[in-house]
């Protein structure tokens, strides 16, 4: 999972832009190791699939 660093200092629009950038890089196979390390927690939304609990891999 890519890590959006310093999100506490970002506006909602900046967070959305960061997520979109990571999505494009992931689709293009261009995420770096540095962008995927150092996270402390992960936010997911498995509810769109009808699940109540899930674990990202």
From TrEMBL:
Cofactor: (R)-lipoate
Keyword Transferase among UniProt keywords: yes
A GO biological process held by the record: tricarboxylic acid cycle
Reactions catalysed: N(6)-[(R)-dihydrolipoyl]-L-lysyl-[protein] + succinyl-CoA = N(6)-[(R)-S(8)-succinyldihydrolipoyl]-L-lysyl-[protein] + CoA
Functional pathway: Amino-acid degradation; L-lysine degradation via saccharopine pathway; glutaryl-CoA from L-lysine: step 6/6
GO molecular function, one term: dihydrolipoyllysine-residue succinyltransferase activity
Domain (2-oxoacid dehydrogenase acyltransferase catalytic): residue spans on this chain: 2-57
Enzyme nomenclature, EC number: 2.3.1.61
PANTHER family: DIHYDROLIPOYLLYSINE-RESIDUE SUCCINYLTRANSFERASE COMPONENT OF 2-OXOGLUTARATE DEHYDROGENASE COMPLEX, MITOCHONDRIAL (PTHR43416:SF5), DIHYDROLIPOYLLYSINE-RESIDUE SUCCINYLTRANSFERASE COMPONENT OF 2-OXOGLUTARATE DEHYDROGENASE COMPLEX, MITOCHONDRIAL-RELATED (PTHR43416)
Function: E2 component of the 2-oxoglutarate dehydrogenase (OGDH) complex which catalyzes the second step in the conversion of 2-oxoglutarate to succinyl-CoA and CO(2).
Entry protein name: Dihydrolipoyllysine-residue succinyltransferase component of 2-oxoglutarate dehydrogenase complex
